[in-house]
Amino acid sequence: MLIDDRSGSISQADLMDLLRVARGWLDTPAGVMLLQSQQVVIEEALQRCFGQHLVQYGLAPSLLDGSQEVLRNRWHFDLIAEPPAMPLQEDQWPFAAQSLDVVLLHHGLDFCLSPRTLLREASQAVRAGGHIIILGFNPWSSWGLNHFAGRSWLSEAGFVSPARLADWLEVLGFAVEKRINGCYRPPLATQKWLDRMVFLERFGERHNLPVGGFYCLIARRQMYGVTPRKQPARAFPALNLPPLTVGTRRTQKRKSE
């Protein structure tokens, strides 16, 4: 079974511009709502994980700041590589195979040139029994309406279907342990209107409805009955980070399966 990656085209320079715009949006009321909801979800997800090495890649560099539920050694990599993040090409992760305990992709698949390439690189670095935690925008939500209608920067984000992503993970040897949904209010511009819609949040969270603005998939790499050898303490013997190069991403509104 092949991992599909149907698409159009965007340059890496345009992708980096899109990422900067999205990060600026995180300071708006809707962006603050998104991050607050996701920090609660990530804290819950990390309680399932154990080990020493965690790598974060994606939208918000400060996502784990102040969290006490993180593994001892953690790194943040980024396409833009603004401090404190380090640069990383999505198709060349500088980690030995099966050397990490947890990889956290915070909307990484929504902002990349090739979702399947990024997912493959990230998954190869996770040890047997380790976890990959993926947060993404849900196309089947009020947030997805902005995506399909071509409104704001949301129209250019990836919006990979969680059902499709679960299939990709299965191909790569992972089993989805849990899906958590969040942000049932639409991404409204003002705090006043977000407060008026809080009843949607309460109802959606109570029933964990699959129509939240984002989803979190917690997946574990299968061991297939073999006890993995203990990995060296260092996640990578040498960190050689190649310079960013111009590339293209094939992007298209993801279709439902």
Protein traits:
transferase, 7 helices, SAM-dependent_MTases_sf, two-stranded antiparallel sheet, S-adenosylmethionine-dependent methyltransferase activity, globular, about 260 residues, alpha/beta, Rossmann fold
* Spatial shape: globular
Global structural class: alpha/beta
Largest sheet: 7 strands, mixed
DSSP E strands, number: 9
- CATH third-tier fold name: Rossmann fold
Q: Helix and strand succession?
A: EHHEEEEHEHHEHHEE
Distance between the termini: 14 Å
Domain tally? 1
Q: Going across the major beta sheet, what is the strand order?
A: 4-3-2-5-6-8-7
Helical content stands at: 25-40%
Share of β-strand residues: 15-25%
For the record, what is the CATH homologous superfamily label?
Vaccinia Virus protein VP39
What count of helical segments does DSSP give?
A: 7
Mean pLDDT: 83
Radius of gyration: 18 Å
CATH C-level label? Alpha Beta
Task: Provide a quick synopsis of the model.
This protein is an alpha/beta fold and 257 residues long. Helix content is 29%, strand content 21%.
Q: Could you characterize what this model shows?
A:
GO terms for molecular function: S-adenosylmethionine-dependent methyltransferase activity. One of its GO terms (biological process) is methylation. This is Methyltransferase domain-containing protein. This protein has about 260 residues and is α/β, with parallel strands linked by helices. Helix content is about 30%, strand content about 20%. It has seven helices and nine strands; from the N terminus they run E-H-H-E-E-E-E-H-E-H-H-E-H-H-E-E. It has helices at about 10-25, 30-45, 115-125, 140-150, 160-170, 190-195, 200-205, and strands spanning about 10, 55-60, 75-80, 85, 100-105, 125-135, 175-180, 215-220, 250. Strands 4-3-2-5-6-8-7 form a seven-stranded mixed sheet, with helices on both faces. Residues about 1-10, about 240-250 and about 250-255 have low confidence and may be disordered.
